[in-house]
Design a protein that fits this description.
mainly alpha; elongated
């Protein structure tokens, strides 16, 4: 996969991540809790960057097993099985990466404290 394609993938998932980060921050702010944009937004971006890392696999899967033609049923089975494996794998990966990000970069070991540090 070329460099330009990776840049486009990262840009696309960054936009999605920023939209979800803003949504998350606004929801917490509406509840009356002051939050750090960095601490609340960074894990959201990590989540979407995990999917950015999986994007080439998804693209190659779609090219190799198209959902058209006479092999539609076996191809849909391949896509279904792969998605059932990728979803949980992505969630576990995101959980551990986010936890380590908050712990090492922000120095927060208690998840309840994440809302009381780094106001921006």
């Amino acid at each position: 996969m070329g460099r330009t394609r990776w840049i486009l993938i990262l840009c696309a998932w960054t936009i999605v991540g920023l939209l979800f980060a803003v949504r998350r921050i606004v929801l917490v702010e509406v509840e009356g809790t002051h939050v750090s944009w960095v601490i609340e937004g960074a894990p959201e971006l990590v989540y979407w960057y995990v999917w950015a890392a999986y994007t080439p696999l998804v693209i190659s899967l779609a090219k190799r097993f198209p959902l058209t033609g006479p092999k539609f049923v076996p191809h849909i089975a391949i896509h279904t099985i792969t998605s059932l494996m990728m979803g949980p794998l992505a969630s576990v990966t995101e959980y551990f990466l986010s936890r380590e990000l908050v712990r090492t970069v922000f120095g927060i070991t208690d998840p309840r404290r994440s809302q009381s540090v780094f106001y921006l």
